[in-house]
């Protein structure tokens, strides 16, 4: 099971190589957390058995250090590959993979140089980790992450919010549920106020993955000890509290060997804490960390395999969404144009793969314009709007000339109904504009795949938008002309013989006119007293005879004869009566009962015929728009895009990728490569490793 720890080390190397923190994959790891000068570096050097970490006052660790300890026995085959490594420990940095360090003073120098290169020379910090491997026969297999110490006051080039920055960096590592938190706290401080322990409790309230290290046991005040703390009586920690003795500054300056310091630590523990000595000290800490990490990895490995597989699939999908690198520009340009034309057409037809659910778009919105917006606008048009009874009466009078009107003149009806039909033209043309705007809007709602290509090639998108705009713009005038002609066609010929405007329909209108009963009775009496021959002619009249009779009786129209469907009464040829009639029909604003009745009849006729025309316009305008604009653009769009954009001289400019898309593709490709390598590393693990 020891071989599991190097596996995790390999995974950390894989993700560190592409600049990805292991927290994204949630690798099992040990995270060292502590305040400045808490003794973290001394603990790590004691575990390694080498003096290799930077020293100084204030904040020294300014970048995360990913430290992998690899146990290599003296007779291991790895040592035979390089003469420098046969009897010595050695170290390798991830950023210098071909350089082997056997002098650990140079290791310290390289850590300082690499830190300064990224973080600057004046106490600045960075979250970019340094990856270091140490191979030794004296270490146990272990992986540690040493983080910058918790600080309160900024110094040097540190920003004013340095405390928050370091806190966020620490939280990004310890929030990983698969991490073991090594909380380092000095024994000469109040353990209950330990800042590292407080951070650990925030992410691990149960303490299931927190191990506490109590440093500087030899520096406690005389007369005090840490027995209660080490036994967990003061603050219980599930994984335990291990006390250690750090090297003093005098030992560091005199370069006292770490082996001697560990012997001094053992002697101090036996003398000061004889009953607790076997379970304390740096050697015991190293063994404990090794054991905890192995069992932790064993528990996390199945979930880790699943997570890596899931992230690999997600990364592949993300990389595909960014598209492949442009190699064959001819193919890519034609592919983008074809995708766009197909997506545009499918959005109009309603066959798109990704259907919009938040709002209507494409063909659905065009249908809504036709059947709801346009239809409701037409329904709201009053057939008699802007037309008063006085205007109807005046039109009837003007249409009769000097002769008295025996029947309702057809000229007045045509004049007035044409005026009302003309009002259908404006909403019809507005319907064309609404459909045009929606066809332009479809460019922005034509599929997720196309939208991603559009964001990838912004210059090509601008050109595509221009082509679509020009093609649609070229169809506005023909479409509006035809729609206007539809209304003009209705105005050109008022078909009073329309099937819905027949004698039966007109007779129904007359019945609804509510002529006075007395007038109908008088009319019947006059008809019964008329000449018998005329009565016979009236009884056998037909549509042609009606027209002739209308002309013989004052030039009245066929429409008027249809309305009454009978011969008008003939009065007596009395000059006195003529004079009285002249006096009675002088121009006046008041209307007679007959004129009121005629006006009502004309109004009903206008309403009836207007409804017929409106129904026809409501049916024909959408068909005309579909024919002259929607279907035409849909049919020629792809050929127009190819004709105007497929020019080899413009390939480089049109296929210039957006910088952010290119960068994201690069990052996604690197992450995918890391995940594939990680999956390969995990696949090397056999079930025998667990036992």
Task: Describe it.
The protein is of the alpha/beta class and 691 residues long. The protein has 2 domains: 4-311 and 682-690, Rossmann fold (3-Layer(aba) Sandwich); 334-651, Up-down Bundle (Four Helix Bundle (Hemerythrin (Met), subunit A)), CATH 1.20.120. It contains 26 helices and 9 strands. It has helices spanning 4-17, 40-48, 77-80, 104-119, 162-174, 195-203, 227-230, 249-253, 258-272, 282-322, 329-349, 363-379, 389-400, 410-421, 425-441, 448-456, 458-492, 503-512, 517-528, 532-539, 543-552, 558-564, 575-584, 593-645, 651-654, 659-683, and strands at residues 29-34, 65-71, 90-93, 96-101, 130-136, 142-146, 179-186, 210-215, 241-243. The protein has a 9-stranded mixed beta sheet with strand order 4-3-5-2-6-1-7-8-9, sandwiched between helices. Strand 7, helix 6 (195-203) and strand 8 (210-215) form a beta-alpha-beta unit. Helix 12 (363-379) packs antiparallel against helix 15 (425-441), helix 13 packs across helix 24 (593-645) and helix 17 (458-492) packs antiparallel against helix 24. It starts with a helix and ends in an 8-residue tail after the last helix. The model is unreliable at 531-587 and 687-691 (pLDDT under 50).
């Amino acid at each position: 099971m020891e071989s599991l720890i190097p596996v995790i080390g390999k995974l950390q190397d894989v993700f560190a190589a592409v600049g990805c923190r292991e927290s994204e994959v949630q690798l099992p790891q040990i995270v060292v957390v502590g305040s400045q000068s808490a003794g973290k570096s001394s603990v790590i050097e004691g575990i390694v058995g080498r003096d290799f970490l930077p020293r100084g006052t204030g904040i020294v660790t300014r970048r995360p250090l990913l430290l992998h300890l690899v146990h290599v026995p003296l007779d291991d085959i790895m040592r035979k590959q390089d003469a420098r490594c046969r009897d010595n420990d050695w170290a390798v940095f991830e950023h210098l993979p071909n350089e082997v360090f056997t002098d650990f003073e140079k290791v310290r120098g390289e850590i300082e140089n690499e830190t300064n290169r990224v973080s600057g020379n004046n106490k600045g910090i960075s979250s970019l980790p340094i990856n270091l491997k140490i191979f030794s026969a004296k270490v146990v297999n272990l992986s540690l992450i040493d983080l910058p110490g918790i600080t309160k006051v900024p110094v040097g080039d540190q920003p004013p919010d340095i405390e928050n920055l370091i806190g966020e960096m620490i939280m990004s590592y310890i929030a990983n549920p698969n991490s073991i938190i090594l909380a380092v706290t000095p024994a000469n401080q109040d353990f209950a106020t330990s800042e590292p322990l407080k951070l650990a409790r925030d992410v691990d309230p149960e303490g299931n993955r927190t191990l506490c290290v109590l440093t500087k046991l030899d520096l406690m005040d005389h007369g005090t000890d840490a027995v209660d703390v080490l036994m967990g009586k003061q603050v219980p920690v599930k994984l335990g509290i291990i006390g250690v003795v750090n090297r003093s500054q005098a030992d560091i300056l005199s370069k006292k060997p770490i082996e001697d310091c560990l012997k001094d630590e053992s002697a101090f523990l036996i003398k000061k804490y004889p009953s607790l000595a076997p379970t304390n000290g740096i050697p015991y800490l190293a063994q404990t960390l090794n054991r905890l990490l192995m069992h932790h990895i064993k528990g996390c490995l199945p979930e880790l395999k699943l997570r890596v597989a899931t992230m690999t699939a997600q990364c592949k999908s993300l990389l595909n969404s960014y598209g492949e690198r442009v190699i064959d520009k001819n193919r890519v340009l034609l592919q983008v144009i074809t995708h766009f034309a197909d997506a545009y057409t499918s959005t109009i037809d309603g066959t798109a793969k990704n259907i919009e659910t938040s709002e209507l778009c494409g063909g659905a919105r065009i249908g809504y314009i036709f059947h709801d917006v346009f239809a409701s606008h037409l329904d709201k048009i009053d057939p008699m709007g802007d037309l008063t009874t006085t205007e109807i009466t005046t039109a009837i009078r003007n249409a009769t000339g000097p002769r008295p009107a025996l029947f309702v003149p057809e000229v007045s009806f045509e004049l007035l109904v044409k005026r009302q039909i003309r009002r259908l033209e404006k909403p019809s043309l507005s319907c064309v504009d609404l459909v045009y705007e929606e066809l332009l809007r479809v460019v922005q709602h034509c599929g997720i795949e196309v939208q991603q290509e559009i964001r990838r090639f912004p210059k090509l998108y601008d050109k595509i938008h221009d082509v679509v705009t020009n093609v649609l713009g070229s169809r506005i005038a023909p479409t509006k002309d035809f729609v206007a002609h539809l209304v003009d066609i209705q105005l050109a010929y008022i078909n009073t013989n329309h099937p819905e405007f027949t004698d039966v329909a007109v007779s129904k209108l007359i019945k609804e006119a509510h002529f006075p009963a007395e007038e109908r009775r008088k009319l019947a009496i006059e008809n019964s007293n008329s000449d018998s021959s005329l009565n016979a002619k009236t009884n056998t009249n037909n549509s042609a005879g009606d027209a002739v009779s209308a002309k013989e009786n004052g030039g009245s129209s066929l429409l008027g004869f249809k309305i009454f469907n009978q011969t008008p009464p003939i009065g007596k040829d009395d000059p006195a009566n003529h004079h009285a009639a002249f006096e009675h029909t002088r121009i006046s604003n008041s209307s007679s009962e007959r004129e009121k009745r005629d006006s009502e009849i004309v109004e009903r006729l206008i309403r009836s015929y207007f409804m017929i025309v409106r129904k026809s316009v409501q049916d024909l305008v959408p068909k005309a728009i579909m024919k002259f604009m929607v279907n035409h653009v849909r049919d020629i769009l792809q050929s127009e895009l190819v004709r105007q954009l497929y020019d080899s001289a413009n390939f480089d400019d049109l296929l210039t990728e957006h910088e952010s898309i290119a960068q994201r593709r690069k990052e996604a490709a690197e992450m995918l490569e890391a995940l594939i390598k990680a999956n390969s590393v995990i696949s090397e693990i056999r079930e025998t490793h667990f036992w």
